[in-house]
Design the sequence.
């Protein structure tokens, strides 16, 4: 682990420059202050109780020196921070737009080409991209440490940021503004593809392209949704418990909610769990599942139910 | 320096009278100070235990000790109790009450009954808040909307408690301002005042002017939740960023309400244990006022990523850099005071030097957060958590502990065990650094704050931070036991054990109820230590 994360966007190196300069100046002043402090504390420690001390009440030249020098340094640092900030806030004209929506507790991405992804952001290496962001419910914040970008997203207003990813790879996207119980699970991956790989991804078939998915049998469509909409992050299909209950053998199972009432996992139970997951919580689990209302269509919910039925 | 006499045959220490009513109905500033001291210390210990629970949960990436919801409740309570019930009233209400009349040569504060009423209001706010803990909120101590307007937990009760508490702060601030203006002893001119008084004055102005804003803000939040008025929730036509502007308009000056009294404490301790006049008296005194003034103009530096305009962010970044200057001036002057001194490393002095060391780190890391480009990366990460604790614990709490050890003999007329005090200082100093220094690196790495669970790559630094919290907790425990044990010791404190020139040390320990047998006449400033040349200033 290095002291600062990998620099994987065009802005990262510039932000690191600011951080590095402030770090060096801080270390200089810290070492100076601590060294003098310790030196004085040792050199002038009381040896006898009747020691005489001089009557020194201050020095105007010193006051001027240690006011003016830090002031100049601070103003220079302000300017440096501002110059880089200005660039971070000014997207180039050729940036392509991706619409980001944050809601408790997931991310959706709508691309300029009609594609739509959930908790996975695909971007092309070395092409500037602008995020147009909005929240559905409460405040969130879009934060990619390796890109050194962060911007709060708000309900009822668009905010934006931009970057050019420079390195192919997969990076963490965090929600950095506290947004409730599932805040620390509001994570996504940023996938930077090489131009060639990106072209293939772009031409690939998305789940929301109705013409193709309509022909799939419901259980197969459900299996596809299970992977593509991120159900697999929390619900296993082998019986193990990750964050939510496993889908294996779920259909028809009986159990108890937190409030003590019992349930049978039928079609209505599964539908309600997908669309209104906060309404009733199965005992032993946390209320951290986001609602998929508006993300999955009625047909898709039916397909997920059909898929769960096959997992005996 | 002061002419006064104490007739021993009439000396009755202020602690003499016993019984519940003698405390509950007291108008003696020293007793009210003790009431505050006990109250804030209890909240400090409770909120500290909550912090230890949080750190225990964070030892591993997954939620294995408490659930995410419980974790969110823990950090909400830890923050709210520490900020509103411990550190904001903190030094100002406890030591401010005890020291201001004694230091300026007055028998009490200007409005003793109002002073008691302020404590009662504090108590009412406390009771409301303790009641609110039955169904605790999970919003974080900042109560950001729209989450705080929509969460199912009980936000109204705790914000109402904080709202009530605000009046205590406003009235205390007003009381101290009048006291410092009107009650100074003859000859106690502004430029002879102890620097703790200057600090208390700056703090009181902030309390008086800033606290009403948070009161109004919390009331608006309560109206939004209970009456459905749309101030902040966009669904009702409100603006969530407006809440942040209101909130930080108070809460940034509040940072200085917390730290300036501690700076005042340090300015008292260092000269006494160096036997030197404070270096740059006027620079320190006026920098307190300078900090107080600028602190009203920097609130939006908490909001660089919130969606405020780039122009606003730039202006606030510039103003934030300005506030660093008076702060740096203070640090340089404290260190210069040590020069050619006769330095005794008493436990109070160790806390004061610890303050200078840790507060320097806190201040320098604040520069990172003031610089726009760096703040974009570091905002809402553990870097902010670490910076804030370096200023609040490394600064204010160190100042508070220093004050406790320094004025303990005067206030209670007893002595604590000095060796144990030094040991607990060492544990607190080491434990604090082990807890919070790794958090700077966590933040730079990108670890967001307020995460109940976290990616595995952060585990080793997180665990280190947790181990540090145990050392810190042990240190505070030993210190607390040592100070409580001291109260029961038979060793009586001398009137002036450190040879201080300040007025509070010229009366018996503990002071008599009316402080001075006869109001003293002051002929010199408080810091006339060292061998004076024949030509005096």
Sequence:
């Amino acid at each position: 682990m290095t002291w600062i994360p990998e620099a994987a966007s065009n802005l990262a190196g510039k932000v690191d420059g600011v951080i590095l300069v402030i770090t060096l100046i801080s270390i200089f002043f810290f070492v100076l202050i601590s060294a003098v402090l310790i030196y004085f504390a040792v050199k002038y420690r009381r040896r006898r109780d009747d020691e005489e001390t001089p009557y020194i009440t201050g020095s105007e030249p010193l006051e001027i020196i240690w006011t003016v020098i830090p002031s100049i340094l601070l103003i220079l640092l302000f300017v440096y921070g501002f110059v880089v900030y200005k660039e971070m806030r000014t997207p180039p004209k050729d940036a392509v737009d991706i619409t980001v929506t944050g809601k408790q507790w997931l991310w959706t991405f709508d691309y300029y080409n009609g594609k739509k992804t959930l908790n996975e952001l695909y971007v092309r290496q070395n092409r500037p991209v602008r995020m147009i962001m909005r929240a559905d419910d409460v405040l969130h914040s879009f934060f990619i440490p390796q890109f050194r970008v962060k911007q709060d997203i708000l309900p009822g207003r668009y905010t934006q940021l931009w970057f050019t990813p420079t390195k192919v790879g997969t990076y963490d996207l965090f929600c950095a503004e506290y947004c409730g119980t599932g805040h620390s699970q509001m994570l996504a991956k940023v996938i930077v593809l090489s131009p060639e790989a990106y072209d293939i991804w772009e031409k690939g078939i998305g789940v929301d392209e109705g013409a193709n998915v309509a022909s799939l049998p419901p259980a197969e469509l459900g299996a596809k949704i299970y992977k593509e909409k991120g159900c697999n992050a929390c619900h296993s299909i082998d019986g193990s418990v990750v964050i939510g209950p496993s889908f294996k053998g779920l259909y028809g199972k009986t159990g108890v909610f937190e409030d003590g009432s019992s349930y049978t996992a039928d079609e209505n139970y599964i539908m309600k769990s997908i669309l209104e997951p906060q309404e009733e919580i199965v005992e032993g689990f946390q209320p951290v599942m986001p609602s998929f209302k508006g993300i999955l269509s009625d047909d898709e919910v039916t397909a997920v139910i059909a898929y769960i039925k096959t997992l005996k | 320096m002061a002419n006064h006499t104490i007739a021993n045959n009439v000396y009755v220490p202020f602690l003499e009278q016993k019984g519940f009513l003698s405390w509950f109905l007291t108008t003696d500033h020293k007793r009210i100070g003790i009431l505050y001291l006990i109250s804030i210390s209890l909240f400090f210990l409770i909120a500290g235990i909550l912090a230890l629970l949080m750190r225990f949960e964070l030892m591993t990436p997954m939620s294995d000790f408490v659930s995410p919801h419980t974790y969110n409740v823990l950090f909400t309570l830890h923050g709210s109790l520490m900020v509103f019930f411990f550190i904001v009233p903190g030094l100002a209400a406890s030591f401010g009450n005890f020291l201001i009349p004694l230091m300026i040569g007055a028998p009490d504060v200007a409005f003793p009954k109002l002073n008691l009423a302020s404590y009662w209001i504090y108590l009412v706010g406390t009771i409301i808040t303790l009641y609110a803990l039955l169904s605790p909120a999970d919003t974080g101590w900042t109560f950001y909307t729209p989450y705080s307007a929509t969460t199912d937990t009980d936000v109204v009760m705790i914000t109402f408690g904080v709202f009530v508490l605000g009046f205590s702060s406003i009235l205390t601030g007003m009381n101290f301002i009048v006291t410092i203006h009107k009650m100074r002893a003859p000859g106690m001119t502004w430029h002879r005042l102890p620097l703790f008084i200057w600090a208390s004055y700056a703090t009181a102005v902030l309390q008086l002017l800033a606290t009403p804003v948070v009161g109004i803000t919390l009331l608006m939040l309560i109206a939004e939740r209970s009456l459905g008025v749309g101030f902040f929730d966009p669904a009702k036509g409100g603006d969530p960023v407006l809440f942040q502007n209101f909130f930080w308009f108070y809460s940034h000056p509040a940072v200085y309400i917390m730290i300036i009294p501690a700076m005042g404490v340090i300015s008292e301790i260092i000269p006494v244990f160096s036997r030197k006049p404070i270096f740059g008296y006027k620079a320190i005194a006026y920098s307190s006022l300078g900090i107080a003034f600028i602190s009203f103009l920097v609130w939006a530096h908490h909001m660089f990523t919130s969606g405020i305009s780039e122009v606003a962010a730039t202006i606030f970044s510039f103003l934030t850099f300005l506030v660093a200057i008076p702060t740096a001036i203070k640090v340089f002057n404290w260190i210069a005071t040590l020069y050619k001194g006769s330095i005794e490393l008493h436990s109070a002095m160790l806390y004061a030097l610890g303050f200078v060391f840790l507060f320097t780190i806190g201040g320098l890391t604040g520069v990172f957060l003031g610089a726009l480009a760096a703040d974009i990366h570091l905002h809402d990460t553990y870097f902010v958590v670490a910076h804030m604790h370096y200023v609040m614990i490394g600064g204010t709490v160190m100042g508070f502990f220093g004050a406790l050890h320094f004025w303990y003999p005067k206030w209670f007329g007893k002595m604590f065990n000095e060796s144990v005090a030094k040991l607990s200082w060492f544990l607190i100093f080491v434990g604090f650094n082990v807890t919070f220094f790794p958090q700077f690196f966590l933040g730079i790495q990108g670890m967001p704050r307020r995460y109940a669970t976290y990616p595995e790559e952060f585990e080793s630094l997180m665990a280190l931070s947790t181990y540090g919290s145990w050392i810190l907790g042990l240190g505070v425990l030993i210190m607390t036991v040592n100070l409580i044990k001291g109260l029961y010791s038979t060793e009586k404190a001398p009137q002036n054990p450190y040879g201080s020139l300040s007025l509070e040390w010229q009366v018996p320990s503990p002071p008599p109820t009316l402080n001075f047998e006869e109001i003293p006449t002051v002929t010199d400033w408080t810091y006339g230590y060292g061998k004076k040349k024949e030509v005096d200033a």
Remarks:
- Chain B has 16 helices and two strands.
- Residues 1-8 of chain B have pLDDT under 50 and may be disordered.
- The domain at 28-522 of chain B is CATH 1.20.210.10 (Cytochrome C Oxidase; Chain A).
